[in-house]
């Protein structure tokens, strides 16, 4: 990851929180060419000691390259927003505010039992806020069995974790307040996620 010093954030708590808040990741690994796919990735552990887990379909071209000890890059992208030149008190270049975390990890294929556990965790995690949540036990056995045989689960053990928060650090507070207002005035988004992060970063 390119990390300009003033935007760099490798704090383990920030990285761990970002993974939990933005679990739909882009994962990249090398096959005969670079391969990428988009999957939910969950975390197990604490900010100082954790592993990740996920699964992919067996017909995904990435599957044949998925093996123990191979490296995978995971990209967890947070909110982003275009910032117009016209939003500054004095003319400035347009830019983009964003947050992201990159994790380099080693793969370990899951056993069938571990895959069962990780699917239970995945379903529980995303169902818990539904008005009528379901559990894996609520899925018909034949449907579960048919889908289970067509996926491969894996653990990911991080060995490098880096993050970035590009949120107008070093700019005048009056410009940051204007940027926040312009983002919140966007018709389709009454409270822009980048505006919320600007609030937190700059104590607005």
UniProtKB/TrEMBL annotation:
InterPro entries: Split_barrel_FMN-bd (IPR012349), TR_PAI2-type (IPR007396). It comes from the Bacteria. Coiled coil: none annotated. It holds the Pfam family FMN_bind_2. SUPFAM superfamilies: FMN-binding split barrel. This is FMN-binding negative transcriptional regulator. The lineage of its organism: Bacteria, Pseudomonadati, Bacteroidota, Flavobacteriia, Flavobacteriales.
